[in-house]
UniProtKB/TrEMBL annotation:
One of its GO terms (biological process) is proteolysis. It comes from the Bacteria. Keywords: Hydrolase, Membrane, Metalloprotease, Protease, Transmembrane, Transmembrane helix, Zinc. It holds the Pfam family Peptidase_M50. It is found in: Membrane. Residues 162-198 form the PDZ domain. The keyword Magnesium does not apply. This is Site-2 protease family protein. One of its GO terms (molecular function) is peptidase activity. It is a multi-pass membrane protein. The chain crosses the membrane at residues 99-120, 387-408. Residues 10-364 form the Peptidase M50 domain. Its cofactor is Zn(2+).
Amino acid sequence: MSYLLGVVLFALAILISVSLHEAGHLLTAKAFGMKVTKYFVGFGPTIWSFRRGETEYGLKGIPLGGFCKIVGMTPQDDDVEPGDESRVMWRYPVWKRTIVMAAGSITHFALALVTIWILAVSAGLPNPDFPTTDAQARQEPAVIQLSECVVPENAVRACTPADAASPAAQAQLRNGDRITSINGTAINSYGDLLSTLRSLKPGETAQIAYVRDGQPATTSTVLAQTQRPPLDNPTGAAAPVAALGVGLVPSTPTRVTYGPVGAFGATADFTGQLAVGTAQALQRLPQKVPALWTALTGGERDIDTPISVVGASRLGGEAVENNAWLVFFMLFVSLNFFIGVFNLLPLLPVDGGHIAIAWFERARSWVYARIGRADPGRVDYLKLMPFTYAVILIGGAFTLLTIAADVVNPITLFSR
């Protein structure tokens, strides 16, 4: 039940986000005097609606987004009633049209920023000093966390009854113990621990000195075998090495909480990282299509492949099921930021396409005025329809592929 609750909650959060996106268009358009005739949550048949002034508000039967109808978004719109010619959107100054079209993305960014700030003062944000690379991890003290087993191959997976038990657990070591030497070789860092283990052989007995709660002690165990690439070449071929069955407990916390004022700076820093990550994710989208197809046809799902609203909702369900509410809200932040950026891309039919055309018209008019030529007027959207349909077709196919992969072979963050 908690999983289903999480799925419903996340899907509802997305629906609310998209509805607020359209409300951003609605409110800014009305503020500038543009005529808005409809604002609906959902698509398809109307379930319920009411009219206030010149705008009809309501709820439709398919809760997959929403829409806001602004009269005269392009000169080619033919639904302008007599007397409304001065209120059509395309007649307004370019800066006003830009604000109206960007208001949806600004709403997503605002939702993300507010959520990040709340997390910063409550649950905490990822610690920028937390080791995220192998080089950083090897500088940490050799404070260990026991693994349940030793996986014989070079892979990250759940333990099975066939896997060897952790030698560290058999030696009665505990989480939080700091190893100080192995077979007389001093261990001053986690890197020293890895290097020393690589100098030993699977099946060899290791004499281990460690510190627990400030008290030194010793123990011994027989090392297991696993497969790992060379320490100086992580992409090299894996070979048999000795394994103790431990991981690293970093000396720095994974999250940091901030005061209400300090949270603003932390929010700005985290948002900058999020912006870089989103830009990189958008650049990788085309090259991830083969990986999505592989996942759909029975191959392993790459955790770095894109997810749809379906996949995000499933991850939200997993987060709630495992009481990982920070993961739930971080998914909400990431999705809102991604949608906000995506909608600003200079492609029709998304908002960024309309913004790009508005500024193209403005720049073209300026150039023509400088060279003494007549203003060429507005862009003919009808001539752009083939490009628009191409974007819709490609985007629709990619969305269907992503949804199918999320249904058939979803990404999971937790073992279920």
